[in-house]
Amino acid sequence: MTATKGLEGIVAAASSISSIIDGVLTYRGINMDDLAENASFEEVAYLLWYGKLPNRSEIETLQKQLDEYAVVPNEVLEGMKLYPKNTNSMAALRTAISSLALYDQAANDMSPEANQLKAIKLQAQLPAVVAAFSRIREGKEPVAPKKGVSIAHNFLYMLSGNEPSDVAVKALDQALVLHADHELNASTFAARVTVATLSDIYSGITSAIGALKGPLHGGANEAVMVMLEEIGSFANVEGYINNALANKQKIMGFGHRVYKNGDPRAKHLQKMSRELGKLRGNMELYEMSVKIEELVTGQKGLKPNVDFYSASVYTALEIPRDLFTPIFAISRLSGWSAHILEQYQDNRLIRPRADYVGPVNAKYVPIEQR
Ligand code: ACO
Questions:
Q1: What pTM value is reported for the model?
Q2: Catalytic residues per the record (predicted)?
Q3: What CATH number is associated with residue 231?
């Protein structure tokens, strides 16, 4: 038995949710470019869960369910008020989502209907949890969710307490569509491994949030912004990047395990970053990002991934830097839960083997002799 480091190239599950074939990403067979241009995030979540685009009455039913479930139990919000003020946002999210299970009577109901409903419930509650976390640490009360508006609209509203602009809602909605699913990425795999033991959906999502937190995965979008802030201005880009590459540092937001010729989602975020920059009358972050891309692609052949231009997009939307990865979680929850439902449908315990490389024939030595 020889291990494949990072399971590169290993096919670990059959799935009909999303595919990456020859660098083209599809959700349920529909090209991501098509969905990014035309679909709302709610339509995409429905597509991922049910395997087809919703008709008008189906999307209206989903909207009603999202409205009904978006309220977070008060016990969870009160619990969040006890988190230390400087808590890492993804750690807070991991804890809060786990605690939602304690107040859901159906948390351990494993029927397909109950699990589908929990997927919708979590999708409704996650944006409210992220917005509440942001407000509580600023000493403000959480804002109750609105009814009849999109998840993107509701999230921006609950974050600031003010009505968001149409431009901001559209940009965030598109970003949510772009992040919704991505085949067997690390966090989705973590979710599937957890529920393949027949553990509950909350446990699966909590595992996924833990996996998404790391800077090699979802945490990269925040890390990109840290880098842009460290660079500070367009004039510093060349020196910073040349130095980082000479020191063999990883440039966050570049490279991908699966895409070697570029991440198809990045172009949409780049366009959005340019348009939002123009609207705000401040193109510096966009221009810095383009210059970084030119240097990193030119010198290393590495292309930007989904996280790279997300950083300047979310900054243009005036979203705090440490909420970038929680926003990724809001979107990816649709994919995680679709994969969890798919795993339950045809489950088998996921239990690979390890290539043992430790000592052999070692003997127990009594403590006095060590
Ligand atoms: N900057 C500089 N060099 C890089 C980068 C980068 N961002 N990414 C890969 N490389 C180099 C590595 O140093 C390595 O070089 P070497 O062969 O000389 O040692 C080579 O490219 C292969 O890299 P690996 O890390 O082995 O590639 P892997 O497939 O394991 O990793 C990953 C993919 C984790 C995305 C990697 O490219 C990376 O760390 N990127 C930065 C973090 C990032 O943006 N993550 C988000 C990914 S998208 C997502 O999860 C949503």
A1: 0.96
A2: 256, 307
A3: 1.10.230.10
